[in-house]
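Fold it.
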Amino acid sequence: MKSILTMAWTAEDPSAFDLAAKLARAFDARLVGLEPPSYGVMSMAWADAGMGAPIGGGLAEDAEERQRVAAVRQAFEQRATGLASEWRSADDSGPTAIGIIGRVYDLIVMPQPGPLPKMPESVFETALFDTGRPVLIVPPGYNGMVGKRILFAWNGSTESARAISLAMPVLSRAESIDVMSVDGAMVPGPTSAEIAQSLAAHGLKVTSQHVKPGTRSAGQTIVDTAVAGGADLIVKGAYTQSRLRQMIFGGMTRHLILNSPLPVLFSY
Protein backbone atom coordinates (compact mmCIF):
# COMPACT_ATOMS: atom_id res chain seq x y z
CA MET A 1 0.00 0.00 0.00
CA LYS A 2 1.77 3.13 -1.24
CA SER A 3 -0.93 5.78 -1.63
CA ILE A 4 -3.71 6.91 0.70
CA LEU A 5 -6.47 9.43 0.00
CA THR A 6 -8.21 10.96 2.98
CA MET A 7 -11.04 13.42 3.64
CA ALA A 8 -12.48 15.02 6.76
CA TRP A 9 -15.78 16.86 6.86
CA THR A 10 -14.95 19.33 9.62
CA ALA A 11 -11.82 20.23 11.56
CA GLU A 12 -13.72 19.32 14.74
CA ASP A 13 -13.50 15.65 13.74
CA PRO A 14 -9.98 15.01 12.39
CA SER A 15 -10.02 11.30 13.31
CA ALA A 16 -9.81 10.21 9.66
CA PHE A 17 -6.72 12.39 9.18
CA ASP A 18 -5.13 11.01 12.36
CA LEU A 19 -5.55 7.40 11.30
CA ALA A 20 -4.63 8.04 7.66
CA ALA A 21 -1.36 9.66 8.75
CA LYS A 22 -0.54 6.73 11.05
CA LEU A 23 -1.16 4.28 8.21
CA ALA A 24 0.92 6.37 5.80
CA ARG A 25 3.85 6.22 8.23
CA ALA A 26 3.43 2.49 8.83
CA PHE A 27 3.31 1.66 5.11
CA ASP A 28 5.67 4.42 3.93
CA ALA A 29 2.82 5.66 1.73
CA ARG A 30 2.07 8.99 0.12
CA LEU A 31 -0.82 10.81 1.82
CA VAL A 32 -3.21 13.04 -0.12
CA GLY A 33 -5.92 15.13 1.51
CA LEU A 34 -9.00 15.94 -0.55
CA GLU A 35 -11.01 19.11 -0.05
CA PRO A 36 -14.52 18.24 1.17
CA PRO A 37 -17.53 19.25 -0.93
CA SER A 38 -19.17 22.51 0.07
CA TYR A 39 -22.65 22.51 1.53
CA GLY A 40 -23.73 24.63 -1.43
CA VAL A 41 -22.53 22.04 -3.94
CA MET A 42 -24.10 19.28 -1.85
CA SER A 43 -27.44 21.11 -1.79
CA MET A 44 -27.38 21.38 -5.60
CA ALA A 45 -26.65 17.67 -5.83
CA TRP A 46 -29.56 16.92 -3.52
CA ALA A 47 -31.80 19.14 -5.67
CA ASP A 48 -30.68 17.36 -8.85
CA ALA A 49 -31.65 14.08 -7.21
CA GLY A 50 -35.09 15.47 -6.37
CA MET A 51 -34.34 15.94 -2.68
CA GLY A 52 -34.26 18.99 -0.48
CA ALA A 53 -31.40 19.78 1.82
CA PRO A 54 -31.48 17.75 5.05
CA ILE A 55 -33.74 19.17 7.74
CA GLY A 56 -31.67 21.18 10.15
CA GLY A 57 -28.77 21.23 7.72
CA GLY A 58 -28.16 24.93 8.20
CA LEU A 59 -26.38 25.38 4.86
CA ALA A 60 -23.47 27.72 5.42
CA GLU A 61 -22.74 31.04 3.77
CA ASP A 62 -19.73 31.30 1.44
CA ALA A 63 -17.50 32.92 4.07
CA GLU A 64 -18.32 30.18 6.58
CA GLU A 65 -17.64 27.55 3.95
CA ARG A 66 -14.23 29.00 3.19
CA GLN A 67 -13.44 28.97 6.90
CA ARG A 68 -14.56 25.35 7.20
CA VAL A 69 -12.42 24.21 4.28
CA ALA A 70 -9.41 26.23 5.48
CA ALA A 71 -9.69 24.67 8.94
CA VAL A 72 -9.94 21.17 7.45
CA ARG A 73 -6.86 21.81 5.31
CA GLN A 74 -4.92 23.08 8.33
CA ALA A 75 -5.89 19.96 10.31
CA PHE A 76 -4.61 17.79 7.46
CA GLU A 77 -1.33 19.64 7.08
CA GLN A 78 -0.63 19.43 10.82
CA ARG A 79 -0.96 15.66 10.72
CA ALA A 80 0.91 15.20 7.43
CA THR A 81 4.10 16.83 8.74
CA GLY A 82 7.11 14.70 7.78
CA LEU A 83 5.16 12.64 5.25
CA ALA A 84 5.17 12.73 1.46
CA SER A 85 1.87 14.55 1.21
CA GLU A 86 -0.33 16.83 -0.87
CA TRP A 87 -3.56 18.77 -0.43
CA ARG A 88 -5.88 18.43 -3.40
CA SER A 89 -8.61 20.92 -4.22
CA ALA A 90 -10.95 19.23 -6.66
CA ASP A 91 -12.23 21.36 -9.56
CA ASP A 92 -15.40 19.33 -9.18
CA SER A 93 -15.60 19.37 -5.40
CA GLY A 94 -19.09 17.91 -5.40
CA PRO A 95 -20.11 14.56 -3.97
CA THR A 96 -18.98 12.71 -7.12
CA ALA A 97 -15.39 14.01 -7.13
CA ILE A 98 -14.03 11.45 -4.71
CA GLY A 99 -15.48 8.64 -6.82
CA ILE A 100 -13.28 9.67 -9.74
CA ILE A 101 -10.18 10.89 -7.93
CA GLY A 102 -10.18 7.93 -5.53
CA ARG A 103 -9.57 5.36 -8.25
CA VAL A 104 -5.87 6.24 -8.22
CA TYR A 105 -5.27 5.41 -4.55
CA ASP A 106 -4.70 2.13 -2.71
CA LEU A 107 -6.89 3.14 0.24
CA ILE A 108 -9.45 5.84 1.04
CA VAL A 109 -9.87 6.97 4.67
CA MET A 110 -13.01 8.91 5.59
CA PRO A 111 -14.98 9.91 8.70
CA GLN A 112 -17.98 7.88 9.76
CA PRO A 113 -21.00 9.34 7.92
CA GLY A 114 -24.34 10.29 9.39
CA PRO A 115 -26.74 13.21 9.78
CA LEU A 116 -25.23 16.68 9.52
CA PRO A 117 -22.87 17.92 10.86
CA LYS A 118 -21.34 14.53 10.08
CA MET A 119 -20.25 13.71 6.54
CA PRO A 120 -23.30 12.82 4.38
CA GLU A 121 -23.70 9.16 3.51
CA SER A 122 -23.81 10.05 -0.19
CA VAL A 123 -20.12 11.06 -0.12
CA PHE A 124 -19.12 7.76 1.49
CA GLU A 125 -21.27 5.78 -0.94
CA THR A 126 -19.68 7.53 -3.92
CA ALA A 127 -16.25 6.53 -2.67
CA LEU A 128 -17.41 2.97 -2.04
CA PHE A 129 -19.31 2.35 -5.27
CA ASP A 130 -17.36 4.41 -7.80
CA THR A 131 -13.67 3.98 -6.95
CA GLY A 132 -13.25 0.21 -6.86
CA ARG A 133 -10.99 0.79 -3.85
CA PRO A 134 -11.32 -0.15 -0.18
CA VAL A 135 -12.79 2.58 2.04
CA LEU A 136 -11.89 2.83 5.72
CA ILE A 137 -14.38 4.75 7.86
CA VAL A 138 -13.25 6.13 11.19
CA PRO A 139 -15.68 6.87 14.05
CA PRO A 140 -15.53 10.27 15.78
CA GLY A 141 -12.86 10.57 18.44
CA TYR A 142 -11.00 7.41 17.44
CA ASN A 143 -7.30 7.87 18.17
CA GLY A 144 -5.84 4.37 17.95
CA MET A 145 -4.10 2.39 15.23
CA VAL A 146 -5.66 -0.45 13.26
CA GLY A 147 -4.55 -3.79 11.90
CA LYS A 148 -3.15 -5.63 14.91
CA ARG A 149 -6.27 -7.62 15.74
CA ILE A 150 -8.81 -7.86 12.92
CA LEU A 151 -12.35 -9.20 12.83
CA PHE A 152 -13.32 -10.23 9.31
CA ALA A 153 -17.11 -10.26 8.93
CA TRP A 154 -17.79 -13.11 6.50
CA ASN A 155 -21.21 -13.89 5.03
CA GLY A 156 -20.38 -16.20 2.12
CA SER A 157 -20.88 -13.55 -0.57
CA THR A 158 -18.91 -12.36 -3.58
CA GLU A 159 -18.53 -8.98 -1.86
CA SER A 160 -16.95 -10.66 1.15
CA ALA A 161 -14.59 -12.64 -1.05
CA ARG A 162 -13.52 -9.47 -2.86
CA ALA A 163 -12.85 -7.81 0.50
CA ILE A 164 -10.19 -10.43 1.24
CA SER A 165 -8.12 -9.39 -1.76
CA LEU A 166 -8.57 -5.66 -1.23
CA ALA A 167 -7.74 -5.89 2.48
CA MET A 168 -4.72 -8.17 2.08
CA PRO A 169 -2.11 -5.42 2.66
CA VAL A 170 -3.63 -4.93 6.13
CA LEU A 171 -4.48 -8.58 6.77
CA SER A 172 -0.93 -9.67 5.98
CA ARG A 173 0.43 -7.55 8.86
CA ALA A 174 -2.10 -8.61 11.50
CA GLU A 175 -1.13 -10.46 14.64
CA SER A 176 -4.50 -12.21 14.63
CA ILE A 177 -7.54 -12.46 12.36
CA ASP A 178 -10.91 -13.78 13.48
CA VAL A 179 -13.19 -14.76 10.60
CA MET A 180 -16.71 -14.46 11.94
CA SER A 181 -20.07 -15.37 10.46
CA VAL A 182 -23.50 -14.75 11.98
CA ASP A 183 -26.19 -17.39 12.06
CA GLY A 184 -29.07 -16.36 9.80
CA ALA A 185 -27.01 -13.72 7.96
CA MET A 186 -25.23 -15.98 5.45
CA VAL A 187 -25.78 -16.43 1.73
CA PRO A 188 -24.86 -19.67 -0.06
CA GLY A 189 -21.08 -19.86 -0.04
CA PRO A 190 -18.05 -21.08 1.90
CA THR A 191 -18.15 -21.16 5.68
CA SER A 192 -16.09 -18.94 7.93
CA ALA A 193 -13.98 -21.98 8.81
CA GLU A 194 -13.17 -22.55 5.13
CA ILE A 195 -12.15 -18.92 4.69
CA ALA A 196 -9.97 -19.10 7.79
CA GLN A 197 -8.26 -22.17 6.35
CA SER A 198 -7.65 -20.32 3.07
CA LEU A 199 -6.11 -17.33 4.87
CA ALA A 200 -3.98 -19.58 7.07
CA ALA A 201 -2.42 -21.01 3.90
CA HIS A 202 -0.91 -17.53 3.39
CA GLY A 203 0.89 -17.86 6.71
CA LEU A 204 -1.62 -15.72 8.61
CA LYS A 205 -2.71 -16.42 12.18
CA VAL A 206 -6.45 -17.02 11.79
CA THR A 207 -9.35 -18.35 13.85
CA SER A 208 -13.02 -18.65 12.95
CA GLN A 209 -16.37 -18.66 14.68
CA HIS A 210 -20.05 -18.87 13.76
CA VAL A 211 -22.13 -16.81 16.19
CA LYS A 212 -25.82 -16.99 17.04
CA PRO A 213 -27.14 -13.44 17.40
CA GLY A 214 -29.99 -14.15 19.81
CA THR A 215 -32.17 -11.04 19.91
CA ARG A 216 -29.49 -8.79 18.43
CA SER A 217 -29.19 -7.68 14.81
CA ALA A 218 -26.41 -9.20 12.75
CA GLY A 219 -24.62 -5.84 12.65
CA GLN A 220 -24.73 -5.42 16.43
CA THR A 221 -23.54 -9.02 16.84
CA ILE A 222 -20.47 -8.20 14.76
CA VAL A 223 -19.76 -5.06 16.78
CA ASP A 224 -20.21 -6.86 20.11
CA THR A 225 -17.94 -9.73 19.04
CA ALA A 226 -15.26 -7.37 17.75
CA VAL A 227 -15.24 -5.30 20.94
CA ALA A 228 -15.28 -8.37 23.21
CA GLY A 229 -12.37 -9.89 21.27
CA GLY A 230 -10.24 -6.77 21.46
CA ALA A 231 -10.31 -6.12 17.71
CA ASP A 232 -9.08 -2.77 16.44
CA LEU A 233 -10.54 -3.16 12.94
CA ILE A 234 -13.56 -4.75 11.26
CA VAL A 235 -13.29 -5.78 7.60
CA LYS A 236 -16.54 -6.18 5.65
CA GLY A 237 -17.68 -6.66 2.07
CA ALA A 238 -20.46 -4.10 1.68
CA TYR A 239 -24.10 -4.42 0.61
CA THR A 240 -24.79 -8.07 -0.15
CA GLN A 241 -28.41 -6.91 0.23
CA SER A 242 -29.31 -3.95 -1.93
CA ARG A 243 -28.58 -0.49 -0.57
CA LEU A 244 -32.25 0.51 -0.96
CA ARG A 245 -33.45 -2.52 0.98
CA GLN A 246 -30.99 -1.76 3.77
CA MET A 247 -32.08 1.88 3.92
CA ILE A 248 -35.72 0.79 4.31
CA PHE A 249 -35.38 -2.31 6.46
CA GLY A 250 -31.92 -1.97 7.97
CA GLY A 251 -29.03 -4.32 7.37
CA MET A 252 -25.61 -5.43 8.50
CA THR A 253 -23.62 -3.06 6.30
CA ARG A 254 -25.62 0.04 7.15
CA HIS A 255 -25.51 -0.74 10.86
CA LEU A 256 -21.71 -0.85 10.72
CA ILE A 257 -21.49 2.28 8.58
CA LEU A 258 -23.50 4.38 11.02
CA ASN A 259 -22.89 2.76 14.40
CA SER A 260 -19.57 0.95 14.65
CA PRO A 261 -17.36 2.24 17.49
CA LEU A 262 -14.38 0.70 15.64
CA PRO A 263 -12.96 1.60 12.23
CA VAL A 264 -14.44 -0.52 9.45
CA LEU A 265 -12.72 -1.32 6.17
CA PHE A 266 -15.38 -1.71 3.47
CA SER A 267 -15.09 -2.86 -0.13
CA TYR A 268 -17.70 -3.40 -2.81
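The beta strands are 3-6, 30-34, 85-88, 107-111, 135-138, 149-153, 176-182, 206-211, 233-237, 264-267.
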